[in-house]
């Protein structure tokens, strides 16, 4: 029976003909086995070309590295008789913090020679085999010394044939334990506070092993000892809990040092160790021996709860989780330092948590902090109890914090506990957003192209708000399918048909406001409030944005209370269009209008004079007359979205969806609910808010559809842009196959579309051409952006790290730079 | 659909001879196919005393669109069908080809004679002032009435109704129009012919060389080639970066401020003994070009967030043509200063030359964290405008560049720099760049941050 860790680099060792390939084939999957012969073949077209060995091993090591990085068992089928060949494998294993294991196949030379002679492709002579045999003898004694953590030697053909592989879990692999847990920060001999905290958490400290009636398990992040008043008391309690199965414990650097001292090693008697030693002196020798055994048996980190939780004293970066090596242990105990020291002479720690991108939550201690804060899914629970702070526990999986204050300061800190700051800056890494990236966001998968990411990076970094604020961007919306009704490119009939085809039976038709899309974040306190455009830019600048937000905040006060949230994210349209887009209207639309309105009468005057001279210009004149009426319609279309504003006077917001609040995404609420919330805002402040008119339609109810169509005709006849038809059930509606449905389709008015498709688009020949428009790209883009946005709201609700929200918001912006017909 | 319009009137009797000069009979309606649509020539009046020829261009938007590949909305709804521009100029050249050359088979003497002419272009992009500057030196009396927007919108559009009158050879008049209509309009042009420079010189023969605005005319006339190439990049509405932004400011200098700034930065880098240098926000690569000439800089990295700026820098440095050894010294990367970038760690020095003022103030801490905290080079050189100096720029209102998010006084810059240095473990010293004024200081302020010795 051969024990092999589940994650290991297994080196087969043996002379040619010893049966390595057969052994590998018997016990491992073909993809797990990297054979030197195969790699020689890959690089040289000849498995026996020894001159290709250097290149072949370079590639083999590279592939082995990729496999190990991904956490896959890897077996190397090569003779591995030379120390330098094995050193290469040890190096690859260490680089990926996996255990190197050797399995030696030792067969008599005669057997090997017989097999070699039987193979046509093996041309070397017996002396070569003899030399290999000598190398093998020499190797056997040195394998363990070279760094192989396990060496299995199989002697003879029968032993090899009878061998079986048994996989062993790593000590740190406790994924099967799912808690619930109470993870407790650095205790440092504060026995009274530990008892108080355990009691508060519900553990029965009066009973042996302090069990929890509900079967909860305590996890200690280490540093039980030193500095405090009763390290032996803490050890006794924790050891009894571990023995009884009511607690798990990882070692801290203080335990590590204590064990070295107890083993008679020469260590510096600093940082509270003398206190512990003095306290232990009055303890019986057997207890001290038990302490030594206990500490020596501790595993430096654990992966728990199906891989969702990692506990280590000083934290652990993702690449080290579930791995085993000296440096993994060292990181878990001491963290990573930059080699520098600060003004108090303490080591400067590398901020690994800031760069952490792993999916497992990492819970640790080691560095005293005034308040525990989640940073990129990691949290430090050392709240400096021994320094007069508090002792803190994190309840898992609920993530509640429970703490008890220290009775007093037991030990003066070298460096004062840092004053409480606001949420620590997680910062963002360029690698979070740039390059070609694949995103699996829960509602689908997408690839962000490098060029689109590059374009988005420019907008995001130069013009947008702080990504920590920018929790969501509005997705683009596809128009309804093209209508074939005379004179119409878009019509309610096709909008209803689109949604019916998607399996929707009830829709809400919302008046489409023609203004500028605005996302608003308001909070009870006003901190972090912002309003941004569809590309994440601030709206008018702080001088106007702040008073506007103040108005929204005031009106939203009852919502904060009723929805029990400290902040809200609103999806709105800011009106009038001219407030934000005045320059665009003048430069683009009204410029065309002014030119047309002036040019056409001049041309008509010329033609009238020509006609008066008896020349026939009738057809030409008719065309200009038509064009005059078209340009008048065009001018009327954009003019209806222009209203005078002065500062905030005249500016209003039309909210139509409430996206998220603290710990919740409102995507699943139906539009009746969303509009009711919007109505409450309008009722609270009718000056700053504009209501959204709506019709609810049961699809298939011909009368209701006709009624909505008439309503749309009257809205658009009065200069309205049109309407948006949405599935009534909510923002995240899926079809029968579970795929997201378009969150809405827009159905734009006949006159409005003049400013999109040109004044003359209603001519039959132009409409015929425009009806060939292709909506596929726009629809897929709209759906992708919608899914990314829903996922961003989910992550926002679960309090995910900034980078997790930002990668999605960034992807929405990147999608917007894809070339899609802007008229859709 | 006849849209773009131009009329030419003469009162030289017999006025109907205008028909001979233009080779278009006043008694007919003439129709021509031109690349952008259909052109008509017709005569609203044709008497012995007064004759007017009208050129109407019926622009076909579909044909216009076919000439450009772009997803800008402006490509679909635009003023080209109404406003005189290169389109009308092109039609003019085609329809009145011989008149433009000054040739006339039937009336050669008349073609050579300056005659009383009145020209009207009802809609033309451009200002009254510019129209006067362009046409008045050529002997025209100019009237250019601004065309107003609708009352709801208020104010005037960018168009004028242009009338010219003067005694000018018809061929000269047509050549003036051919060159100056597109110059005055100066919008994006979608219509381009391959031999523009030659056309300009041919049409400008005899008048352009002596024109007081010849530089502006040539620049604008030829500008549309560049616009065409770059229109795709306008999709995200990114403001164009102008590396030498003060160059248009009215101040007399011997050496440009930009050059002085580069020299000051190079001096700071040399003093710091920096060999491996990053230019953060390298723009078009002006500093990189200076760095690469100095062999002391063994590794040079230019970063910018704008892909367009990086393309410009790549072209300016001729990276594709540099010998391998030279090329290995320089790298051009896209990076954003508000994100941490691992590639930027471990350099001797970083330069932020006229960069920080392009970052919104609330985002500046993110820049500080990524540059001073994460990249953490031994030396950081920062330059930024000195707002106090702005009073010396005559006619300057607001800030020196439209993309500047702030401009600091010396006290503000010092306060920011000192706090940043303190927070990230640097010492800082300040230097003026450019001519120093007694009360306001120099136009540019420079700070050199040096990493404090590690207390190992």
Automatic annotation (TrEMBL), chain A:
Is DNA damage set as a keyword in this record? Answer: no
Recorded GO cellular component terms are: cytoplasm
* Chain segments annotated as transmembrane: none
Under Gene Ontology molecular function, one entry of this record is:
kinase activity
Residues annotated as domain Calcineurin-like phosphoesterase: 180-368
Note whether Kinase occurs among the keywords. yes
Domain of life of the source: Bacteria
Q: Which Pfam families match?
A: AAA_33, Metallophos, PNKP_ligase
Provide this UniProt record's keywords sorted from A to Z.
Kinase, Transferase
Polynucleotide kinase-phosphatase ligase domain location is: 455-819
Note the NCBIfam families from the entry: bacter_Pnkp
Protein name stated in the entry: Polynucleotide kinase-phosphatase
Query: Where is the organism placed in the taxonomic lineage, from the top?
Result: Bacteria, Bacillati, Actinomycetota, Actinomycetes, Micromonosporales
């Amino acid at each position: 029976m051969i024990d092999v860790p589940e994650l290991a680099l297994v080196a087969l060792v043996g002379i040619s003909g010893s049966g390595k390939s057969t052994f590998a084939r018997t016990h491992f999957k073909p993809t797990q086995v990297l054979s030197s012969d195969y790699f020689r073949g890959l690089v040289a077209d000849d498995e026996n070309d020894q001159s290709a060995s250097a290149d072949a091993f370079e590639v083999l090591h590279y592939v082995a590295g990729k496999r190990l990085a991904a956490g896959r068992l890897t077996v190397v089928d090569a003779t591995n008789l030379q120390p330098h060949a094995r050193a290469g494998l040890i190096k690859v294993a260490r680089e990926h913090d996996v255990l190197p294991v050797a399995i030696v196949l030792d067969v008599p030379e005669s057997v090997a020679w017989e097999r070699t002679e039987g193979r046509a492709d093996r041309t070397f002579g017996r002396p070569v085999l003899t030399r290999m045999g000598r190398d093998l003898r020499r190797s056997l004694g040195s394998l363990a010394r070279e760094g192989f953590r396990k060496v299995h030697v199989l002697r003879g053909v029968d032993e090899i044939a009878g061998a079986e592989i048994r996989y062993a879990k790593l000590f740190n692999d406790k994924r099967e334990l799912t808690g619930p847990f109470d993870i407790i920060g650095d205790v440092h001999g504060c026995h009274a506070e530990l008892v108080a905290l355990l009691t508060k958490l519900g553990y029965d400290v009066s009973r042996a092993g302090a069990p929890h009636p509900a079967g909860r398990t305590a996890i200690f992040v280490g540093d039980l000892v030193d500095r405090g008043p009763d390290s032996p008391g803490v050890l006794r309690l924790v050891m009894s809990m571990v023995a009884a199965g009511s607690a798990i414990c990882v070692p801290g650097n203080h335990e590590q040092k204590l064990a070295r001292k107890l083993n008679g090693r020469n260590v510096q008697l600093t940082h509270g160790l003398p206190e512990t030693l003095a306290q232990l002196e009055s303890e019986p020798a057997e207890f001290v021996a038990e302490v030594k055994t206990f500490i020596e048996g501790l595993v430096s980190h654990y992966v728990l709860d199906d891989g969702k939780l990692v506990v280590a004293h000083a934290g652990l970066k993702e690449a080290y989780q579930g791995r085993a090596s000296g440096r993994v242990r060292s990181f878990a105990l001491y963290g990573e330092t930059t080699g520098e020291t600060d003004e108090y002479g303490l080591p400067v720690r590398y901020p690994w948590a800031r760069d952490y991108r792993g999916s497992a939550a990492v819970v640790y201690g080691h560095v005293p902090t005034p308040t525990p804060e989640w940073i990129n899914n990691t949290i430090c629970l050392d709240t400096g109890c021994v320094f007069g702070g508090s002792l803190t526990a994190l309840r898992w999986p609920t993530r509640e914090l429970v703490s008890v204050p220290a009775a007093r300061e037991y030990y003066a800190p070298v460096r004062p506990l840092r004053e409480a700051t606001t949420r620590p800056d997680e910062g963002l890494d360029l690698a979070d957003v740039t390059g070609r990236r694949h995103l699996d966001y829960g509602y689908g998968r997408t690839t962000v192209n490098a060029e689109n990411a590059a374009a988005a990076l420019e907008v995001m970094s130069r013009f947008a708000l702080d990504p920590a604020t920018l929790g969501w961007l509005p997705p683009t919306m596809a128009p309804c399918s093209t209508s074939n009704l005379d004179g119409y490119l878009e019509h309610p009939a096709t909008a209803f048909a689109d949604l019916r085809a998607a399996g929707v039976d009830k829709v809400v038709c919302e008046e489409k406001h023609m203004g500028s899309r605005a996302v608003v974040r308001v909070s009870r306190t006003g901190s972090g409030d912002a309003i941004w455009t569809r590309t994440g830019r601030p709206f008018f600048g702080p001088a106007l944005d702040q008073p506007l937000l103040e108005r929204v905040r005031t009106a939203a006060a009852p919502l904060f209370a009723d929805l029990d949230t400290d902040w809200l994210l609103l999806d709105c349209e800011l009106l009038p269009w001219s407030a934000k887009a005045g320059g665009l209207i003048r430069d683009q639309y009204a410029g065309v209008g002014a030119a047309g309105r002036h040019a056409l009468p001049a041309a008509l005057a010329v033609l009238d004079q020509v006609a008066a001279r008896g020349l026939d210009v009738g057809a030409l004149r008719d065309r200009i007359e038509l064009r005059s009426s078209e340009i008048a319609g065009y001018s009327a279309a954009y003019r209806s979205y222009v209203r005078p504003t002065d500062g905030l006077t005249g500016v209003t917001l039309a909210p139509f969806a409430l996206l998220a609040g603290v710990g919740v995404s409102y995507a699943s609420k139906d539009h009746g609910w969303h509009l009711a919330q919007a109505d409450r805002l309008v009722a609270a402040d009718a000056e700053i808010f504009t209501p959204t008119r709506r019709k609810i339609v049961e699809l298939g109810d011909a009368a209701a559809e006709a009624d909505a169509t008439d309503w749309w005709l009257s809205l658009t006849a009065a200069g309205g842009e049109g309407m948006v038809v949405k599935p009534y059930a909510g923002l995240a509606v899926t079809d029968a196959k579970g795929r997201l449905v378009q969150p809405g389709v827009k159905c734009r008015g006949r006159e409005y579309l003049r400013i999109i498709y040109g004044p003359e688009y209603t001519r039959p020949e132009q409409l015929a051409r425009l009806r060939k428009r292709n909506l596929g790209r726009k629809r897929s883009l709209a759906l992708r952006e919608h899914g990314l946005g829903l996922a961003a709201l989910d992550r926002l609700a679960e309090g995910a790290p900034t980078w997790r929200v930002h990668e999605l918001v960034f992807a929405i912006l990147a999608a917007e730079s894809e070339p899609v017909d802007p008229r859709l | 659909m006849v849209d773009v319009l131009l009329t030419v009137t003469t009162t030289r009797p017999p006025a109907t001879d205008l028909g001979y000069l233009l080779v278009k009979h006043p008694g007919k309606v003439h129709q021509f196919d031109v690349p952008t649509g259909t052109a008509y020539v017709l005569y609203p009046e044709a008497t012995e005393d007064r004759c007017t020829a009208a050129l109407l261009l019926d622009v076909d938007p579909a044909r216009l669109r076919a000439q450009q590949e772009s997803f800008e909305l402006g490509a679909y709804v635009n003023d080209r069908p109404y406003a005189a521009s290169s389109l009308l100029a092109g039609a003019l050249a085609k329809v009145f080809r011989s008149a433009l050359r000054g040739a006339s088979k039937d009336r050669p003497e008349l073609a050579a004679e300056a005659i009383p002419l009145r020209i009207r272009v009802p809609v033309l992009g451009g200002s009254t002032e510019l129209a006067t500057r362009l046409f008045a030196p050529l002997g025209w009396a100019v009237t250019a009435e601004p065309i107003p927007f609708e009352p709801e919108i208020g104010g005037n559009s960018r168009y004028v109704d242009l009338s010219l009158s003067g005694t000018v050879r018809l061929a000269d008049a047509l050549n003036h129009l051919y060159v100056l209509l597109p110059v005055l309009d100066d919008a994006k042009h979608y219509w381009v012919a391959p031999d523009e420079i030659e056309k300009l010189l041919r049409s400008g023969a005899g008048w352009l060389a002596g024109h007081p605005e010849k530089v502006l005319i040539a620049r604008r006339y030829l500008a549309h080639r560049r616009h065409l190439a770059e229109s795709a990049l306008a999709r995200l509405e990114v403001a164009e970066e102008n590396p030498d932004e003060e160059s248009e400011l009215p101040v007399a200098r011997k050496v440009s401020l930009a050059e002085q700034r580069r020299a000051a930065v190079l001096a700071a880098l040399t003093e710091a003994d920096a060999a491996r240098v990053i230019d953060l926000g390298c723009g078009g690569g002006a500093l990189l070009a200076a760095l690469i000439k100095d062999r002391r800089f063994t590794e040079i990295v230019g970063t910018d967030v704008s892909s367009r700026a990086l393309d410009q820098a790549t072209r300016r440095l001729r990276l594709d043509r540099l010998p391998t050894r030279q090329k290995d010294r320089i790298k051009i990367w896209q990076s954003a200063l508000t994100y941490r970038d691992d590639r930027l760690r471990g350099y001797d020095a970083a330069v932020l030359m006229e960069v920080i003022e392009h970052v919104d103030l609330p985002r500046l801490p993110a820049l500080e964290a990524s540059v001073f905290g994460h990249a953490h080079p031994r030396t950081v050189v920062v330059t930024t405008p000195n707002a106090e100096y702005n009073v010396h720029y005559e006619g300057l209102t607001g800030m020196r560049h439209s993309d500047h998010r702030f401009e600091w006084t010396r006290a503000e810059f010092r306060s920011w720099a000192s706090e940043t240095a303190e927070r990230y473990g640097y010492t800082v010293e300040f230097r003026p760049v450019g001519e120093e004024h007694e009360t306001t200081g120099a136009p540019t302020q420079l700070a050199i941050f040096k990493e404090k010795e590690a207390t190992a």
